[in-house]
TrEMBL record:
<dbReference type="InterPro" id="IPR036909">
    <property type="entry name" value="Cyt_c-like_dom_sf"/>
</dbReference>
<protein>
    <submittedName>
        <fullName>C-type cytochrome</fullName>
    </submittedName>
</protein>
<dbReference type="Pfam" id="PF00116">
    <property type="entry name" value="COX2"/>
</dbReference>
<keyword id="KW-1133">Transmembrane helix</keyword>
<feature type="domain" description="Cytochrome oxidase subunit II copper A binding">
    <location>
        <begin position="99"/>
        <end position="215"/>
    </location>
</feature>
<dbReference type="InterPro" id="IPR034236">
    <property type="entry name" value="CuRO_CcO_Caa3_II"/>
</dbReference>
<keyword id="KW-0408">Iron</keyword>
<keyword id="KW-0349">Heme</keyword>
<dbReference type="InterPro" id="IPR009056">
    <property type="entry name" value="Cyt_c-like_dom"/>
</dbReference>
<keyword id="KW-0249">Electron transport</keyword>
<comment type="similarity">
    <text>Belongs to the cytochrome c oxidase subunit 2 family.</text>
</comment>
<dbReference type="InterPro" id="IPR045187">
    <property type="entry name" value="CcO_II"/>
</dbReference>
<keyword id="KW-0479">Metal-binding</keyword>
<dbReference type="InterPro" id="IPR001505">
    <property type="entry name" value="Copper_CuA"/>
</dbReference>
<dbReference type="Pfam" id="PF00034">
    <property type="entry name" value="Cytochrom_C"/>
</dbReference>
<keyword id="KW-0812">Transmembrane</keyword>
<dbReference type="InterPro" id="IPR008972">
    <property type="entry name" value="Cupredoxin"/>
</dbReference>
């Protein structure tokens, strides 16, 4: 597999709990359908009783009998059955254990996601942003943290959601049964751009995941021509290094997303724009017009320099 072939081959899965793609998500989806069906049956029963009560043949009712039967006995019986069944099914969901073979750290910030993978050779963490790559067919443990306010990670097609609380590390297990792209979202209101704090989980076959991780461990690609060399120099001269890391150019971890392989990501700005040279240039030029309140200021540079910088970032795959 080369580059982003999984992304290109499969369309994004709907961000819906009703389209499960993993074992935990299938259980949660079953909960939803049972609740939908039970609610529909109760509604139909109430409407039928209302129709009978309004009919000409309506008989005198005994209030205490209806209160005891329909108001107490019926809901207690139904809720008790649901409680027992849901407890049993919940016990079949994957344990939130950091002992799973694949462990990934996800940090939430206003309004983007930092993602860290253990280096396959034991080196420094491999840092990315706004995408979580996982192997298929195995539970993946996500260690979750927040750098500012309460966020919540939710990928409906793969599992439940988990809050991310400043000063604490929480955990969430995801599993994808097949390769594909699964959209997620921050599910806890976190400020002005909460609605544009999305991410994508990209599931690969295990061998393809290992190959992808090995590529991500490498430094940024060297410029192959004069335009890209100018873009690389612009990244330094325009002080982009004050907030962003590109391994091989700027090694220090900064305030903004790591851009070492940004050109290989599906989106920039946490799911807001598809990644290509035009969107990169537009985002660099004036991010506030696209995502007001984002921590990135507009760039003051001429058009040729902006184009060169966007071209350089686009080829970092």
């Amino acid at each position: 597999m080369k580059g982003t072939s999984v992304q290109a081959a499969l369309p994004p899965v709907l961000q819906s709990v009703l389209h499960p793609a993993g074992p935990d998500a299938a259980i949660i989806s079953q909960f939803a359908w049972v609740l939908f069906g039970g609610g529909a049956l109760v509604f139909a029963l109430v409407m039928a009783l209302a129709a009978l009560g309004l009919g000409r043949r309506a008989r005198t009712v005994r209030p205490m009998a209806w209160i005891a039967g329909a108001g107490v006995a019926f809901p207690v019986a139904v809720l008790s059955v649901l409680l027992a069944w849901s407890t049993w099914r919940s016990g079949q969901m994957a344990a939130q254990s950091s002992q799973h073979a694949t462990r990934i750290a996800v940090g939430a910030n206003m309004w983007w996601w930092e993602v860290r993978y253990p280096h396959p050779d034991g080196g420094a963490d491999i840092v990315s942003a706004n995408e979580i790559h996982i192997p298929t067919g195995t539970p993946v443990y996500l260690g979750l943290s927040s750098g500012d306010v309460i966020h919540s990670l939710w990928v409906p097609a793969l599992g439940g959601k988990m809050d991310m609380v400043p000063g604490r590390v929480t955990g969430l297990t995801l599993q994808a049964d097949q390769a594909g792209v699964y959209r997620g979202q921050c599910a806890e209101y976190c400020g002005e751009q909460h609605a544009r704090m999305a991410l994508h989980v990209i599931a690969h076959a295990p061998a393809d995941y290992a190959a992808w991780l090995a590529r991500q461990a490498g430094p940024a690609a060297a410029p192959a021509n004069a335009l890209l060399a100018r873009g690389r120099q612009a990244f330094i001269d325009q002080r982009c290094v004050a907030c962003h890391t590109i391994r091989g150019v700027s090694e220090v971890t900064r305030l903004g997303p790591d851009l070492t392989h940004v050109g290989g990501r599906l989106h920039i700005a946490a799911g807001t724009l598809r990644t290509h040279r035009g969107t990169l240039a537009g985002w660099i030029a004036d991010p506030q017009s696209i995502k007001p309140g984002a921590r990135m200021p507009p760039a003051g540079m001429d058009g040729d320099t902006l184009n060169a910088l966007a071209a350089y970032l686009e080829q970092l795959k």
